[in-house]
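Input.
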Amino acid sequence: MSPPKSHPYALRGLHSGAGTQILTLTGLRFNANLGILDHEKTGPQPIQVDAELNQGTQPLIPHDDDISHVLDYRKVRQIIIDECTAEHVNLLESLIGKLAHRLMQLPGVIGVRVKIAKLEIFDDCEVAIRMESGQW
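Output.
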């Protein structure tokens, strides 16, 4: 059934719409070896990662319903965990740069925003750093 002539899709066709697509993972928590303090060097500590991956302009209605044609968020989640737990790093700045660089290499990703928070470094606050790279 075609949309009525007054419908917004009538002139463009039902499948011609597009929009900016951003994959978001929020509140991903796990332990990582990170920091310069003695207790941080001897054992992992809990961190939280939030990530946004800009995939640019995508069709509003995908061409098909096949997972192999989109950015699989299960794989993105595992990449974040793997990058943050691969080795001990001293600085949040080093870790976030490494992670942002890796996420920018994913197919179709044109921009990333990442936040990494150390959840238990202080009793009265969370310490975090954010980085943005690529196109927004």
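Confidence is low (pLDDT under 50) at residues 6-15.
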